[in-house]
Structure formats: structure tokens, C-alpha cells
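Subject: sequence -> C-alpha cells, single chain

Hey, anyone have a minute? Need the predicted structure for the following. Not urgent.
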Amino acid sequence: MTHGLEQLQLRLQYRFKNPDLLRRALTHRSFSVEHYERLEFLGDSVLGLAVADMLYAQLGSLPEGDLSRIRANLVRQETLHALALGLGLSELLRLGEGEMRSGGPKRPSILADALESVLGAVYLDAGFATAHALVQRLFAQVDIHPAMQAVGKDPKTELQEWLQARKRPLPAYRVVATLGAAHQQSFDVECAIEALGLSERGIGGSRRAAEQTAAAAVLQTIKTRAIA
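Reply:
Had a minute. Here:
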């Protein structure tokens, strides 16, 4: 494991001052109570801001809606999964036996979460500028272009754009409960828009998937009630 972490730091082009942060970033909740979910929460925000900054610099002439859709494409599970595989995270994840047997090291949701966790760990270890530079290196080989905005919107992006167009506050997402055994968990997530008095919940095999389900439920409520 120590050699693997050394090689990963070479691929990241960053050496941790506190290696325990990197170990935690690669530790699933099925392996230990000292797992990566808090780092993932932090890394998700770091990634979103770093990608937004990158798009503003590269595609600054595009309107906000198009930039939001491109960002959604870049931070979605499929993209993060591919980047995590390229870094070799699947060989370094620490998982419980049940999760290992059920294919956890190759599961896209786990690998995407682990990549966000690594970003959160870098942020804590060295600050935003270093984490931002890592995001730029990770996406250097990704073909980012205006046509990416033509890909269909996911529910979270659609809901965000609907709210922004009406000058409404953005929704708040929170994990209400974690269901099932450690190696086969589901997440129950609430999407709430306090200003509109709306709140819906969604369940998914990952926090990200549950947020999308909850956002889709809010959108359906908006359409059903014909909220303007």
C-alpha cells in the first residue's frame, strides 16, 4: 500500500505533507469508521468551483446556462470514474470484504466519490490553489468545447437553471439516512427549496445518484403544481 501511495502521488504530481489524509481519502465506510465521506463532501465543492473557474477562463463568452451544462458534464459520475481509473484508484481503495466481493473496486460511484475525496484531501493538505492546479491537470486531456452543452441536462442542473432564471435561492441537499449493509448501501437524500416551501427525497446507490433522484422529484412537483 505504501508503494502504491507513493506512485499515486507521482501521478497526482503532488506529495502530501500529511499522508494520513490520502489514506483516508481512499478508505470506504465498509472498511473503517475513519472513511472518506467527509472528504468527499469537501472535494465535491472544490471540484465544482475549480471546474467553474476553468470554464469561465476557457469559454467565458458562453452564457451562464451553457456553462452550467458543460460543468455538469465534466463533474458527472462517468467523467470522474474515467479520471479515477486513469489515476489507478481502483487498486488502492480500502474496502470491506463484502464490498470487495461485490465489485466495489470497479464500481463507478465509489471511484467517482474517491476522486472527490482525494481532491478534498489535497485541499486540506495544501489549500485551494494546489487543489485547483490538480483539477486543471486532471482535465488537461479532456476535450472541453462549447458543443458539450448540447448534451441533455441532468435533473440537478435543470433545477438549478430553473431557479436561477427566476432569481430564486438554490436548493439545499442533505443526507437524511444511509440504508443497508456497508457493502450494499443506499442513500436517502432530501432536496429542499425553503423559499418555495418545497422538499422532496430521493434514494440512490450513491449520494450523487440520490441527489439527482431528489432533484427530479422536486422538478416533478414544480410541474404538477404549475409553480411559476
